[in-house]
Amino acid sequence: MDQHTLDLPLYEALAGRITALVDDGVLRPGMRTASVRTFAAQHGVSLTTALQAYRLLEDRGVLEARPKSGFYVTHRPHRQRALPTASQPPQRATPVAVSNPVFSVLAYAGDPSYAPLGCALPSAGLLAAERLDRHLARCARVHGRAYNVYANPHGDAELRAQISARGLRLGHAVSPDGILITNGCTEALNIALSVTCKPGDTVAIESPTYFGLLQVLEARGLRALELPTDPASGIDVASLDKALGMRRVAACLLASSFNNPLGTRTDDARKAAIIRVLTRHGVPLIEDDIYGDISFGDDRPRPFAAIGPKADIILCSSFSKTIAPGYRIGWLAANRRHDEILAAKFALSLSGAALPQKAMADFLKSGGYDAHLRRIRKLFADNIDRMRRTVDRSFPKETRMTDPKGGFVLWLELPPEFDADALYTRAIRERICFVPGGLFTATSAYRNCLRLSCSHDWDARIERSVERLGELAHELLA
Amino acid sequence: MDQHTLDLPLYEALAGRITALVDDGVLRPGMRTASVRTFAAQHGVSLTTALQAYRLLEDRGVLEARPKSGFYVTHRPHRQRALPTASQPPQRATPVAVSNPVFSVLAYAGDPSYAPLGCALPSAGLLAAERLDRHLARCARVHGRAYNVYANPHGDAELRAQISARGLRLGHAVSPDGILITNGCTEALNIALSVTCKPGDTVAIESPTYFGLLQVLEARGLRALELPTDPASGIDVASLDKALGMRRVAACLLASSFNNPLGTRTDDARKAAIIRVLTRHGVPLIEDDIYGDISFGDDRPRPFAAIGPKADIILCSSFSKTIAPGYRIGWLAANRRHDEILAAKFALSLSGAALPQKAMADFLKSGGYDAHLRRIRKLFADNIDRMRRTVDRSFPKETRMTDPKGGFVLWLELPPEFDADALYTRAIRERICFVPGGLFTATSAYRNCLRLSCSHDWDARIERSVERLGELAHELLA
């Protein structure tokens, strides 16, 4: 058992292992489990402990006791929870001030002594980037001297060629010269905003939206205009059209797909409609495609840039969510504004670290990234599924939750009177971290919502933490 | 002979080698050289070629022919060129628009087919960072998984501890928590400016000043107030005081020492006086210490932050000029504004690449950086000395030049009617790159000035290129 499991009472840890076997389909509904006596012997525990584990699983609805027969895996109906309601943010531009509360959450989110439901960052073990690291080691040994110069401000040429080739497979035709390597997606967004907006301008965004993006708007002195957003389909096109007709909006910034926190997949037809509206109003689109490669479906969604190749679109992305958060390699792809973009990059940080870029180029070139993506897509889909089941059986019945089509975060909406900040305070005391909903907006909305991250290997501690959040939510609503 | 030398006529290449022996002190003034016949035999060349080489050296004043005796190394009086005049920029804040011309110069500066007098970047061979690269290779192999996360936004803790310890040796007491690792010094300057200024504000700077800094001001929508600056001693304190009394200045941004392009060393007394003036006017100081470690003297100058430990000072620096331009590791150190600085870093790029930071920390911890600094200080001092001698014998007699006390750039001032842009156009045609003076100001000054970079291994091609610039300058002034 790993360290986290050891922190739990023994019977809970055992119960967690049985639940995992059920979730994995090894133990199927209707199957009879080992008897309590056999189970105790198998695991070298007392009869009492074995019985405690089974009773707990009975309480949780995983097993059912049949008189004189033993314990059976239940036919659990996977209750279809309602999706969160479509958002209706106030239709005015709002100054952004989220940084202070965000930092207090991030301090806990990065602390491994807290259950990791806060930070939307895959655990390093799960990403298994050893092959990439070996490329870096080789590059440092072999190319150290050649690369100890300021890189081309555009970034490594081979890396840009690889990214261009990957884009082409999605129908996104951008030449290597149209790509700029950045210090992660955050710098890409900064550059995209710097060439489209000036301080005081308004940027139209999804609502709820990633708090890090709100911090970027705050730092750049930009105002946020939050758009009505449906967890099933994305932003409302008619509302966008109306909003752009009423005020000057300098740019529209949307997730390409699987937005954080909703995990929404916007279909191609709606994407095309959004591009038409933006083009008619002369508003550039900045799209954040950082979760695009983590699609649970058979196909990976196309970015806006592939759907509207002639529109004024700047695509921002990175390798941080899929393979290498520690490498800080992002990029930006644009079909115009090249000179401004280069000047902005130059003024922000000249160029990026050369050897990590070269290593990433070698890694992509050597193949294997797609196999890696297939592996983590399945992994994150499984994690989301387990998280949804655990929420389903643990949270108050009025709880709505998203049904993400990609990425690794889940968004819960509780009744309006629910106070997610109060839940947060109690959870932190019990060493459980998550992100309360209020951080995902510049308005006062989503105080009854929360985001759970499913980006770590599923284990008993995570399962128990989600259950505990459910118990606390029950108490707070009582 | 290396490739560059092979591009020259044989007698010129031979003359260059003799000059190098003289410059290196192997051939000392008054020494008799080998006879023409012996020299020809030694180098396997014809008598004619040997004589041509000696005659060229005679023309250049390196050798003198004594009748019936042979050739002797001259007692060359190292003519003391006058320093450039102290600058007197117009005392008004100027919007900055330098990016376009800068980019056209940088395109040539990074092209190895041009003689490298443009880019102020040490050649990778000269920096010999192999030990650092080996640390990176080891880190990637050993620590890949542990470091494949978003680094602490402050940066690697061990690296900050190492930087803090180095600061302390200079009398600059800043705790590791007061240090923030950045993507090079450029990002550090952006962060420092973002927490002290808002768009439209005025920043007081040296004049002339580094064009990259002007680009940062331009990108941030800041105005430049250029201060009268003496190549011998730095900015004029009385002028600073007067300027700050006349208008609101949001920040003052100065090189700690060895400013680019003047190479000035500002003494401690003047630094203290500058801090007093700034404190009295409530203006924060941002200091750029990027050349501080490349001091030609016995001691390394103390940054402003060491001289005024209680003043509102943000120190920015990096390892880019001394060991690792390709690693893009800079930092800033501040004794206040921590929360704003962290928020600004977070909004700009979250954190830096983790493994290069860890490698740099291991490299510093393992010792040897100081030995490396001693080596490159001597190397750059020698390069500057050779460049000054070559300018001295090649450029029009009215040419003034700096006498840098550190760094690796030289600044020339020609008569007012001289057109450095015209020289640039002709030089580029002959594959020689340098930076014309007009790029070092937001005003219309310094059109008669130029900056020569001495950051590459000295060779015959560089020497010949400087001589050629001198010839062209003669022609342009004729």
Descriptive overview:
- The structure is a homodimer of 478-residue chains.
- Chain A is α/β, with parallel strands linked by helices and 478 residues long.
- Chain A folds into 3 domains: 3-73, Arc Repressor Mutant, subunit A; 127-369, 3-Layer(aba) Sandwich (Aspartate Aminotransferase, domain 2); 371-477, Aspartate Aminotransferase, domain 1, CATH 3.90.1150.
- Helix content of chain A is 44%, strand content 14%.
- Chain A has helices at residues 3-6, 10-23, 36-43, 47-59, 99-109, 124-127, 130-143, 157-169, 184-196, 211-219, 237-246, 268-281, 304-307, 338-349, 354-365, 369-394, 420-429, 460-477, and strands at residues 63-66, 70-73, 94-95, 115-116, 179-183, 202-206, 223-227, 229-230, 234-235, 251-255, 285-288, 313-318, 329-334, 400-401, 409-413, 432-433, 435-436, 449-453.
- In chain A, the strands form 5 sheets. The first copy, chain A, has an 8-stranded mixed beta sheet, with helices on both faces. A 4-stranded antiparallel beta sheet of chain A has the order 14-15-18-17, covered by helices on one side.
- In chain A, strand 14 (400-401) and strand 15 form a beta hairpin.
- Chain A is globular.
- At the A-B interface, helix 5, helix 6, helix 7, helix 9 and helix 10 of A face helix 5, helix 6, helix 7, helix 9 and helix 10 of B.
